[in-house]
Amino acid sequence: MRLKPWFFLFLTGMLSQLVTLPARAAGDAAPCAANSDARQLDYWLGDWAVASPGMAGKGHSNVHLSLDQCAIIESWGSDTSNHRGENTIAYNSEEKAWYSLFIDNHGRVHAMKGTVTPGGAEFVGPARDENGRAILKKVKVVRLNADAVEQVWERSVDNGASWTTDFKMEYAHKKM
N- to C-terminal Cα distance for the chain? Predict the structure, then answer.
């Protein structure tokens, strides 16, 4: 059986793609790690003790990087109840915009778009109140100092003209 010349051309082309694929992948390795815009929330990374001023109970939070440093994941929970959640925040370099997804084990999900600057973040998105009425939710994450971060959740019933605080959480770096 004699192989046709086009088959060798095809085979050569496929092999050249396989040989260059690792080199191309290495060139794209960790593009988020080198992107200063995507690194603006790095102050929030670490293990935290969490408390809400004036409220009983404490909590904990671990904020870490995932997906080659392209996603910031917060895994959090209450130390006094079974309330826990996972929040994912990421910078979309194509759109030059930040996105967040806040999820808890009570079935609440908040998808938001926002802005981040060194030392502060703000995300806004649609939600529903306890009566099913459409509202806006806003989450702010602010660096207070090297060992303290504040997260504030707010709501607006008038499409963002005014805001009411739902709750505030203070994060303190856990001491090793």
Answer: 71
42-173 adopts what CATH topology? Lipocalin (2.40.128)
Residues linked to residue 62 through DSSP beta bridges, in sequence order: 47, 75
Distance CA 2, CA 12 (A): 17
Among the ranges given (7-11, 67-71, 127-131, 144-148), the one the predictor scored with the smallest mean pLDDT:
7-11
Read off the pLDDT of residues 128-157 as tens digits, 9 standing for 90 and up: 999 999 999 999 999 999 999 999 999 999
For the chain, give every domain's residue range.
42-173
Query: How far from 131 is each of 41, 104, 127, 165, CA to CA, in Å?
Result: 34, 19, 11, 18
**Distance of alpha carbon 165 from alpha carbon 117, whole angstroms:** 22
pTM for this predicted structure:
0.80
